[in-house]
Please model this.
Amino acid sequence: MLRNALIAGESARDDSTHAKFSLSKWTETFLSRSFSFSARPLTGWVPNNRRRTPMSIRKALLTGFVSFVSFAAIAITNSQSSAAWTAKAAGGKPPSYQQPVTTTIFDSDTSGAFLMRSDDYNGAGQATYTTIAVSKGAGFVVASAITADGRWQLDLSDQSGRSLWITPNQPVDGSQPAAPPAGNYVIQKAYSVCRDQNGNAVPYPLLVNGNGNCSMAVNFFYGGILYKLLMRPDSLDATLCPPGGCPPTGLAQVACNVVSANQCTNWTITPNASAQLVGVSNLYSYTGPRGAEWVFIGQYYNTFRVNAAKQ
Model:
């Protein structure tokens, strides 16, 4: 039960980018402050020596307020991505990139074994992971997919037969604290998100030219605690960091191997060897309750080679 509660609480916050602006709450505050008048009439001089009444002041303030709210609504809408804005302007919904993929996790290359490896369940030196639906009802035992918002994700949380070998305890230097041991973990999920130069997420199918500004995250349980081993372009939201902030990490590189109908359908994910801090990831822990912060632990290396192919 604790495990499910942690998953529910963490998933609502995972890899979020921006808090939503509450226009209705602001409206309520503005109205309560702007339209509360004392019993004493408010007066002021206007042309033709006419006095302005409380009612006319209310009308003037209301007109200005409506104009301001209209402007604010337009500004908020324009902050959405161009793709979503185009879809909404046409009366539709933002595009969904949901599609199953075959994920292949490799164990090594010519330089040696990777720190994140497969379970060799159906291969030697590598293994494939495909979506498996539950026998009854809705849901999946294993989920390997490009999600609706366009990121790659492998979810193993609802079964026990498949796993990943991960190494969360390979410190970047001797000052890092102890971390969970290396071993086969039935991970909650692994995922990768790519971003453009402005920090906007770019869906995997649109990465026809690849992208070196991507994340690689692995969420796993150890000792009843949820951990996240993460490299990404910017800081993780809702995080308890040391004074001065959480340190930067390396990046992941996504290469597009196959393009079909102007969309990428086959990808390879590796650490970005051209970026700084190659292979460096931050380790965080999450113990709840819902809405609690991730807690920074230290910095550790992660190496990997992942392929995802549209089925």
